[in-house]
Amino acid sequence: MYSAADLRKGLKITLDGDPYLVIAFDFSKPGKGQALYRTKMRNMINGTILDRTYRSGETFEPARLEERAMQYLYKEGDNFCFMDNQNYEQIAISEDLLGDSKYYLIDNLMVEVLLFGDKPIGVNTPNFVNLRVLQTDPWIKGDTTGSDSKPATLETGYVLRVPPFIEEGELITIDTRTGEYSTRVKG
Amino acid sequence: MAINRILSDRRAALTRRAATIREIRRYFQDRDYLEVETPLLIPAPAPESHIDAFQVGSWFLHTSPELCMKRLLAAGYDRIFQICSCWRQGERGKRHLPEFTMLEWYRSGCDYLGLMEECEAMIRQVVEAADYGTNFTFHNQHIDLSVPWERISVREAFLRYSSVTMEEACKRDQFDEVMVEDIEPHLGLSRPTFIYDYPAERGALARLRQDDPSVAERFELYMGGVELANAFTELTDPEEQRTRFANEEKYRRSIGKPPYPIPEKFLNELTDMPPSAGIALGVDRLVMLLLDAAAIDEVVAFTPEEL
Predict the structure, then answer these.
(1) Which residue of B has its CA nearest to A34?
(2) CA of B96: which chain A residue's CA is closest?
(3) pTM, full prediction
(4) Which chain B residues are Cβ-neighbours of A56 within 8 angstroms?
(5) Where are the beta strands (DSSP E) in A103-184?
(6) Architecture field, domain B5-150+227-306
(7) A38–B180: do the CB atoms touch at under 8 Å?
(8) Where are the domains of chain B?
């Protein structure tokens, strides 16, 4: 059982029998008033977005989801295919259910597939993944006017900001929890 | 390169923060305010329905320096200010830290309207002296400090921005929700907003308006939808204050919160307190606004999660 004070981005709760993922969360406390927990939640099955405001003391059931270790195989149309290495069972998950996770899927990556009953509803990627830089502008040395980051496109199509010294073809580590650049992989 | 890159990257913000605090001090010192330091660890915090103190042994970390500063007022210190850490349990979000920095100042012979003017003058002066200019952008809102600041009563704000009246919202126990969802997002957008005259039950330490006792002489300052300061014409009637504390305490117990001892010394000395007004302003939030920070985290050296 969760209470309102446990609410945070990424928490999964059950509402009216459906699993919901908290996608935005804001703690508010109007002057001298009570703590309010403003949440935006996405229905993990049909994608509906709900805005709800809770008070401290309100409670929620966690969403009971099964996590199964699976390997990412390939993309086919709008579907991404995964395989359970124990029994070789394969499942396909549509792009829209994957959300930003699709940007971190490189061949053979081990992920946790989320199942609500028998239904795959998403994947958890490792907190850090290494991805190759496909395109980014070269670093002009001595450029003191520029900002301390520049855009780069990765092999999965993901576009993010990286430090200026990153070059095309380099492998970089992404923090999948924030979607941000973490570090350069040496060698 | 430092191992803790996040911390080393905060240098600019921490430098601006220090400059801001320096200018706040200068403002009050130049106007004959006495800077005071009251104890952070106290035996009895002010009982307030929705503010929870951290207990340390049988004492508490103060949630604001209010009670001690009012004892100073009562003892004849007529213009005082303090910049100190305050602690409030369970408050953590983009604009909240359980340990934060508060600026409080009190002035005798002044009411909340006088304090509004001083608050406006102080922030204008500090912002300019700390080299932020006369206007700034916060979360894509352009806020101009140089034009007269907006003043709107809570009652008017409910009429203008929500579908219920202030009285109706109180009756339905929806005041906080309406405030947060419908009203706050409109406050202080192009210039700062003072919102004043709160429902009487929402100003536990404030004087009621004589011509309309349904509201308390209390205001809040908002900038960019962010609550920045809270002020009262202070209640100076010890018996009335005792009753209000008892009500707050009763509410706290009814929802299972731990009881606080009654701040007896404060209540006794309140008899001597001259008519005064006082205000508390979140220093972290002011810096956060001026630096257009996404979260309060960016303007402190360490958040609790980073310790």
Answers:
(1) B50
(2) A27
(3) 0.79
(4) 90
(5) 110-116, 119-124, 128-136, 150-154, 159-162, 171-175, 180-184
(6) 2-Layer Sandwich (3.30)
(7) yes
(8) 5-150+227-306
